Amino acid sequence: MRHTISILVENKFGVLTRIAGLFSAKGYNIESISVGPTEDPSISRMTIVTNGDDDQIEQIIKHLNKLIDILKVVDLTNEPFVERELALIKVKVNPYTRGDVIQISDIFRAKVVDIGPTTLTVEVTGKSDKITAMINMLAPYGIVELARTGAVALKREFKGEVYSSKEIKLIKKKSRQKPTEDTEKG
């Protein structure tokens, strides 16, 4: 089963190597890995997509939590989460196929980011399966180059609770009120 694991790590030299080494030593494959700084420059968020059964993933998480510089490990697989991936795809075109490639890009809500006499480069973002589908649609035209980021993910906070318009007005009203002495003490 495909698992998406979010890891908060201290932004220090060698952390990525230790995590990749752990996966390698245990014989687990990393399908994709993305790393970047968070809102706090001293912390990075790492998103790893891997395959395994629940017991294997539980073991991976236990081992990750033992590594130094690891702050938090969360398997997002069974949680609601938002996932996105980015790909830049350079496609071979000619005057007859250029319009087709642009039309496919529009269908996938991709952007043309570079154009040349014999190539067109598009940028597409979305879930991994959307990226793969677009690549498959463009493959017959001839993919010259491809760069794909791997998934990035965050836990979804909205759980589906819907407030009435009266509740929204009350929430807004309360957020604008100045704190009283009672609320300041408590």
From TrEMBL:
A GO BP annotation: isoleucine biosynthetic process
SUPFAM superfamilies in UniProt: ACT-like
EC number from the UniProt entry: 2.2.1.6
Record flagged with keyword Cell membrane: no
InterPro entries hit by this protein: Acetalactate_synth_ssu, Acetolactate_synth/TF_NikR_C, Acetolactate_synth_ssu_C, ACT-like_dom_sf, ACT_dom, AHAS_ACT, AHAS_small-like_ACT
Cellular component terms per the entry's GO annotation: cytosol
PROSITE patterns: ACT (PS51671)
Family classification: Belongs to the acetolactate synthase small subunit family.
Subunit-level organization: Dimer of large and small chains.
Listed name of the protein: Acetolactate synthase small subunit
Organism, scientific name: Candidatus Thermokryptus mobilis
